[in-house]
């Protein structure tokens, strides 16, 4: 069916209608049509009801057209031979032979009307009815002539199939229902090409009496009229006798049904993106969509008592990147909980869901492997002091443990090594629009949810992990909405390689582990736990709960929370979002293939030190097997224990320059980061500090002569102030005589430190000792010097109230 009227008919008109006539006649006919178009322009194209179709072609969601009518566009493929036969035989049996007007029928009608014999008729052809439906007018003799002229004009522009299609799209069925497709869907809940012969004939007889024969109200009368026409068609042998007999026995149970309303958020999104388009084809699978909507709606109902009102779900086919289910909210019609907000595209804090990508970048940059040991202790990252979700610290953990348990401190440390710019640049490649916009202002808190992301972006990111690290834009429509979108002036590619296949596999292997704290208690005992790799996330203030998982077939993203941003004590990814994720996988992929991800050839195994995850050194008796990327992963040897020369009584240590010829022994001492050593001492865990260096060593005496030095960017990071935080502002209650804590992290050879406030000596203390003092108000400089001559400073602002 034509989408709009236009003079592009000439070539077809030349070939199909007048080619057999003489050249002069042809030329005159074409000129006549052109003149007619100029004087008598064709009416505008009909305004159809926007229909969003599912992947299988069924109607997913329907909207009223701009004139508030149900006028759904019937495609040529939906006009069955039975429908054509019934309509043409009933309305205009010579439709295929005339040129818009049937002179014989007009003559017969004129005689009948003049003599008053028989039923009064206008002898309208199907083409004339199309002209009248396009431009409704009062029925007068003049308008009848104009109608005939318009019918001739339409025949010159369109084929018979297109004219019949126009007619079937415009015929009235009572109330605000127009067109065969609208009637078929609203009364029989089937498209026209799925109707039985009895249903097809029913729709063929209504247009002549749309106000008298109302489906659902006049069914007995309609049934009698339908059977009368069926017998007529049988007498004229238009259909097989058995088909007629079966149709006569079919009951008529038609009634008005609501229009389809699956995937309302996606449907609205597609319609707004393609205004004026009658048929929009989506990638949604109706059964998957209906199941996802039901699961989300019923699940949120159970959470109502916890102060949680909404959920959003996205289901992606990993092979095609097609979105098969799109649930923007638990209930689109629930205004109380802002159900019309699209949770799939809402920008929220992603919590910990970005950590897998960060660790994958660390793998690809050779900075870590799964068994690499990372510090998990209180750390001050230039004024940023993150905490773990449970506010507990484990000292040192492997990377795979840090990811499985979603620890914050190791993630921030890795981000500091990888670089915030590198991390946000990769997110930009993956289509994170808010991150791309905010990138210049983002810092280390990004990895803990200090940025904006959508469920669509996060699900696409995890689909990339399922695809060996290659990101591709998710598909929501078979028609391209925007081939390339611009973000901050740059064109975003439709696909890009975020991680190597090896890094993606390592992440999958870690995320598929079942021994983890974010496994819901009820799922742990369930025999129906799906085999998936998944990650949870919880935003600050417990406002957003995420759980995103994937297997070979699907990637499913789940968000649970409140659209008004209100938090809830129960709102965590593990306890609230993961149960819905598992329900979705068990419902949608219960018979999925047992095929799982295989390690790529680019991965290999090696022995590493169990204490550090590095290539074993000479003092690494405990070793284990670890994955690594040959030619990429760092090959630095482990030195977690250092050999030290100590005096026979163990009071002093010697460097090579001051070691005596005899009377000393060799011992192994742990070589820990200062912050790890300070943490262990504060926790009362067994530690060993190096004995003081030989006081007679000239190197020590020279270094001690100037132990209060200025800051130097080249100073080794063997001494740091852990409290107070640099550039922080402290407001102390003067009436309560509040004090400020002084603490530091020093390497194992440091035994004593010296504290200074505004360059004035305050006191000496053990390296692990916590010191409290009452600071002056205003800008305060705090300095700490160790017994090896190293000095560090921080500046803070102190206010009193």
Give the secondary structure arrangement, pairings included:
Elements: H1 10-16, H2 23-39, E1 51-53, E2 59-62, E3 70-71, H3 81-91, H4 103-115, H5 126-134, H6 141-157, H7 160-170, E4 177-178, H8 180-188, H9 197-205, H10 219-235, H11 241-249, H12 264-273, E5 279-281, H13 286-303, E6 310-317, E7 323-327, H14 355-364, E8 373-376, E9 395-398, H15 399-404, H16 408-418, H17 420-429, H18 433-438, H19 455-466, E10 470-472, E11 486-487, E12 490-491, E13 495-497, H20 501-511, H21 521-524, E14 533-538, E15 544-550, E16 554-561, H22 573-588, E17 604-609, E18 623-628, E19 641-647, E20 653-654, E21 664-670, H23 674-682, H24 698-704, E22 719-723, E23 729-732, E24 740-746, E25 752-757, E26 760-766, E27 771-773, E28 778-786, E29 791-800
Parallel strand pairs: 1-5, 3-4, 23-29
Antiparallel strand pairs: 1-2, 6-7, 6-16, 8-9, 10-13, 11-12, 14-15, 15-16, 17-18, 19-20, 19-21, 22-24, 24-27, 25-26, 25-28, 28-29
Descriptive account of the structure:
It is a single chain. Helix content is 32%, strand content 18%. Strand 14 and strand 15 form a beta hairpin. The chain has a 5-stranded antiparallel β-sheet, with helices on both faces. A 5-stranded mixed β-sheet has the order 23-29-28-25-26, with no helix packed on it. Helix 3 (81-91) packs parallel to helix 9 (197-205) and helix 14 (355-364) packs across helix 16 (408-418). Residues 1-15, 17-21, 480-491 and 701-716 have low confidence and may be disordered. Among the domains are: 38-249, Biosynthetic peptidoglycan transglycosylase-like (Penicillin binding protein transpeptidase fold, Orthogonal Bundle), CATH 1.10.3810.10; 641-698, no CATH class; 707-800, Sandwich (Immunoglobulin-like), CATH 2.60.40.10. It is of the alpha+beta class. The radius of gyration is 39 Å and the shape is elongated. It has 24 helices and 29 strands. GO terms for molecular function: carboxypeptidase activity; penicillin binding; peptidoglycan glycosyltransferase activity.
């Amino acid at each position: 069916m034509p989408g709009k009227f236009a003079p592009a008919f000439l070539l077809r008109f030349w070939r199909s209608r007048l080619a057999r006539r003489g050249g002069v006649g042809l030329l005159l006919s074409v000129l006549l049509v052109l003149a007619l178009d100029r004087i008598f322009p064709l009416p505008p194209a009909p305004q159809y009801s926007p229909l969003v179709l599912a992947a299988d072609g069924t109607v997913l969601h329907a909207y009223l057209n701009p004139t508030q009518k149900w006028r759904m566009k019937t495609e040529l493929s939906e006009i069955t031979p039975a429908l054509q036969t019934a309509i043409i035989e009933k309305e205009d049996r010579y439709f295929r032979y005339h040129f818009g007007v049937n002179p014989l029928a007009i003559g017969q009608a004129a005689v009948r009307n003049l003599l008053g014999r028989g039923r009064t008729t206008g002898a309208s052809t199907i083409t004339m009815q199309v002209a009248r439906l396009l431009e409704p007018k009062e029925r007068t003799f003049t308008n009848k002539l104009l109608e005939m002229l318009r019918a001739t004009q339409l025949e010159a522009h369109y084929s018979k199939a297109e004219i019949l299609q126009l007619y079937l799209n415009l015929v009235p069925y009572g109330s605000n229902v127009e067109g065969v497709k609208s009637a078929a869907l609203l009364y029989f809940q089937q498209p026209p090409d799925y109707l039985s012969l009895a249903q097809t004939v029913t729709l063929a007889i209504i247009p002549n009496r749309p106000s008298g024969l109302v489906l659902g109200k006049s069914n007995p009368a309609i049934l009698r009229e339908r059977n009368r026409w069926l017998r007529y068609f049988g007498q004229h042998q238009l259909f097989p006798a058995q088909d007629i007999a079966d149709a006569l026995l079919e009951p008529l149970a038609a009634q008005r049904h609501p229009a389809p309303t699956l995937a309302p958020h996606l449907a609205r999104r597609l319609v707004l993106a393609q205004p004026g388009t009658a048929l929009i084809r989506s990638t949604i699978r109706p059964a998957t969509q209906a199941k996802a909507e039901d699961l989300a709606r019923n699940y949120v109902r159970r959470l109502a008592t916890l102060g949680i009102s909404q959920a959003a779900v996205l289901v992606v086919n990993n092979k095609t990147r097609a979105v098969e289910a799109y649930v923007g909210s638990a209930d689109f019609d629930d205004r109380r909980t802002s159900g019309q907000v699209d949770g799939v595209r809402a920008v929220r804090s992603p919590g910990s869901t970005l950590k897998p990508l960060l660790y994958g970048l660390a793998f690809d940059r050779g900075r870590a492997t799964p068994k690499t040991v990372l510090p998990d202790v209180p750390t001050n990252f230039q004024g940023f002091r993150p905490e773990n979700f449970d506010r507990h610290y484990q000292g040192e953990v492997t990377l795979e443990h840090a990811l499985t348990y979603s620890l914050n401190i190791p993630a921030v440390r890795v981000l500091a090594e990888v670089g915030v710019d590198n991390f946000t640049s990769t997110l930009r490649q993956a289509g994170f629009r808010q991150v791309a916009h905010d990138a210049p202002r983002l810092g280390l808190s990004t990895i803990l949810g200090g940025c904006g992301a959508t469920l669509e972006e996060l699900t696409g990111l995890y689909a990339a992990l399922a695809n060996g690290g290659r990101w591709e834009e998710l598909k929501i429509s078979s028609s391209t909405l925007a081939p390339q979108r611009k973000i901050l002036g740059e064109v975003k590619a439709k696909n890009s390689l975020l991680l190597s296949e090896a890094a993606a596999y390592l992440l999958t292997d870690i995320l598929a582990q079942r021994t983890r704290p974010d496994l819901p208690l009820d799922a742990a005992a369930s025999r129906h736990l799906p085999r998936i790799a998944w990650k949870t996330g919880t935003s600050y203030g417990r406002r957003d709960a995420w759980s995103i998982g994937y297997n070979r077939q699907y990637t499913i993203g789940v968000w649970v929370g409140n659209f008004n941003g209100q938090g809830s004590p129960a709102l965590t990814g593990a306890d609230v979002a993961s149960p819905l994720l598992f329900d979705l996988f068990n419902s949608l992929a219960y018979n999925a293939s047992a095929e799982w991800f295989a390690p790529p050839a680019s991965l290999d195994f090696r022995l590493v030190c169990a204490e550090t995850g590095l290539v074993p050194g000479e003092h690494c008796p405990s070793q284990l097997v670890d994955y690594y990327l040959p030619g990429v992963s760092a090959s630095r040897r482990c030195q977690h224990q250092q050999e030290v020369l100590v005096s026979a009584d163990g009071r002093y240590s010697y460097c090579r320059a001051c070691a005596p010829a005899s009377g000393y022994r060799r011992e192994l001492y742990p070589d820990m980061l200062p912050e790890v050593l300070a943490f262990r001492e504060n926790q009362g865990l067994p530690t060993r500090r190096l004995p003081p260096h030989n006081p007679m060593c000239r190197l020590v005496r020279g270094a001690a002569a100037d132990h209060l030095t200025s800051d130097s960017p080249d100073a080794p990071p063997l001494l740091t102030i852990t409290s107070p935080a640099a550039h922080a502002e402290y407001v102390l209650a003067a009436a309560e005589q509040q004090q400020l804590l002084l603490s530091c992290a020093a390497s194992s050879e440091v035994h004593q430190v010296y504290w200074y406030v505004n360059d004035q000596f305050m006191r000496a203390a053990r390296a692990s000792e916590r010191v409290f003092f009452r600071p002056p108000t205003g800008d305060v400089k705090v300095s700490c010097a160790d017994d090896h001559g190293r000095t560090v400073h921080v500046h803070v602002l102190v206010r009193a109230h």
